[in-house]
Specification:
Layout lengths: L2 E3 L12 E5 L6 E6 L3 H16 L7 H17 L1 H12 L3 H23 L5 E2 L10 E9 L2 E5 L7 H13 L3 E4 L6 H12 L7 E3 L5 H9 L3 E7 L2 H9 L6 E5 L4 E5 L5 H13 L9 E7 L3 H13 L19 H16 L3 E4 L12 E4 L6 H4 L6 E7 L2 H8 L4 E2 L1 E5 L3 H10 L4 E4 L15 E2 L2 E2 L4 H7 L1 E9 L4
Parallel strand pairs: 1-3, 6-7, 6-9, 7-8, 9-10, 11-12, 11-17, 12-15, 14-15, 17-18
Antiparallel strand pairs: 2-3, 4-5, 5-21, 10-20, 13-14, 16-19
Helix pairs in contact: 1-7, 2-4, 2-5, 2-6, 3-4, 4-5, 5-15, 9-10
């Protein structure tokens, strides 16, 4: 029997349509989920705001640490169950979903670690006549109600990145997972509650009506809005936020890589392959545009294509699968259209270039697609890597920087001066040297520039965003 999930909102009395959650690989229904109507959103907001306004109900840091510690233990005890759930609903192969679960558990622990060292600072006084006989310092307080809207591609770890910091900082949080992948989110919220978090402190709901989602995000009771998803939706929602609501937006990019003539190709190839095709390329900093010196470009591209052809594409719940499906059939159609347009414009297809089924697309390496084509201009978010030869390094850097998006980038070179010089000139918030663009650990800053986002992600940085610094100034003649 298909499992059914009710809205995780205490006091809710009505709901909208029932959402079917389907496995992206074969379209089978794996669960059904109630969706919130306008009244449901209002109930969730009222629950959260009433908690925040009544300081007597605030959870002390000791209690928050206890809840997070228990949550990490429960997650570890259900490791395989969480991994299989994420693989089924999101399509990421089981071997990579296990890595995601390990990261999610570590993310909860990071919240605890940062909370233990989360402190204010002393503000210097006694520096002039006006500041004599005074002591000033800041303390940390929760910013208010957090509304988190998440994406499908890391259905557990992204939720941990948004909900974990809210719980750690003492913010009531309402989380809306992606419609395609709500189950991992609901599992995590259940675990938090099992660990002792009162239900009103973390509420989870799904919606199918855009106006209801907008109602949730734009309400004046929201203190902080956390968004992971498309730039189009993120910037639109930001424009509608109530005055005073802070926000962080994480969008995508079209990550560039520059490979110099002296690069260690043997080292670079498997790294580029993983960075470009991990989770079928459905990663916001996935390797997409590789600019390679013309003396080695064709050789690198051909060898990369040969490696791409060897990858096992199929059912993400099987141990042997290396590349899973796209999240929806519509994404397969879109990628097929974009690649066919590039083919028609004379692009060399070195591997792939065709759909395998309604849900899967071949691992594709394109050589020198026109830089005006969609595969060069837009985030592909699929298993497609572009390789472009260059003769002049300045030109390659300019081509890498030309798009209105900028997130993470990388450089492959055995000359440290060359690598550092290129990294300094790249439009990116992070540049990896001799590593792929999708490298990330969850305590580092993670930030999109230009149209790729606003604010800084990474668990410690998100916790900072979800707090205010309240300054206390004490005057005493004894000081």
């Amino acid at each position: 029997m298909t499992e059914h999930y009710s809205l995780m909102v205490p006091g809710i009395t009505s709901s909208d349509a029932v959402l079917e959650v389907k496995a992206p690989y074969d379209g089978s229904v794996i669960a059904t989920v109630d969706t919130a109507d306008s009244d449901g959103v209002e109930t969730a907001l009222t629950n959260a705001y009433n908690l925040f306004r009544d300081r007597k109900t605030w959870l002390e840091p000791e209690r928050r640490i206890e809840i997070l510690e228990k949550s990490a233990l429960i997650m570890q005890s259900r490791f395989e169950e969480l991994a299989v759930e994420a693989a089924r609903e999101g399509g990421k192969p089981l071997l990579d979903s296990r890595v995601e679960v390990a990261r999610a558990i570590d993310g909860v622990k990071l919240c605890i670690e940062h909370l233990r060292t989360n402190a204010g600072e002393e503000i210097p006084m006694g520096l002039n006549a006006a500041s004599n006989n005074r002591l000033a310092f800041t303390t940390k307080e929760p910013i208010g109600v957090v509304v988190a809207v998440s994406a499908f591609n890391h259905p557990l770890n992204l939720i941990v990145h948004q909900v974990g910091p809210a719980v750690a900082t003492g913010c009531p949080v309402i989380v809306k997972p992606a419609e395609d992948t709500p189950l991992s989110c609901f599992r995590f919220v259940e675990i938090l509650r099992e660990a002792g978090l009162p239900a009103e402190w973390c509420q989870a709901l799904t919606v199918t009506d855009l106006s209801v989602a907008t109602q949730l995000v734009t309400d004046e009771r929201v203190g902080f809005f956390s968004f992971i998803g498309s730039a189009k939706v993120g910037w639109m929602l930001r424009s509608k936020l109530a005055p005073g609501t802070r926000c962080a937006l994480e969008h995508g990019g079209a990550a560039p890589v520059i490979v110099t003539e002296d690069a260690d190709i043997e080292n670079a190839l498997p790294i580029l392959l993983k960075g470009g095709l991990y989770h079928a390329g459905q990663v916001c900093v996935s390797v997409q545009r590789i600019f390679v010196h013309e003396s080695i470009a064709e050789d690198l591209a051909l060898r990369l294509a040969e490696m791409a052809r060897q990858l096992n594409i199929g059912d993400p719940t099987l141990e042997e699968t290396e590349i899973g499906p796209l999240i929806r059939a519509a994404e397969v159609n879109r990628i097929e259209t974009w690649v066919n347009e590039a083919k028609a414009a004379g692009t060399k297809v070195l591997s792939g270039g065709n759909r395998l089924s309604e849900s899967c697309y071949e691992c594709t390496v394109l050589y020198e697609p026109p830089e005006s084509s969609k595969v060069s201009q837009n985030e592909i978010f699929g298993p497609v890597i572009n390789v472009y030869p260059y003769s002049d390094l300045d030109d390659a850097i300019n081509r890498a920087n030309v798009l209105p998006v900028a997130f993470q980038a990388s450089v492959f070179s055995q000359n440290i001066d060359t690598a550092l010089g290129i990294s300094k000139r790249m439009d990116a918030s992070a540049v990896m040297i001799n590593d792929h663009t999708a490298f990330r650990v969850d305590w580092m800053p993670f930030a999109g520039l230009k149209q790729s986002g606003l604010g800084v992600g990474g668990i410690p940085h998100t916790m900072h965003d979800m707090q205010i610094d309240k300054m206390l100034v004490m005057r005493s003649n004894a000081i």
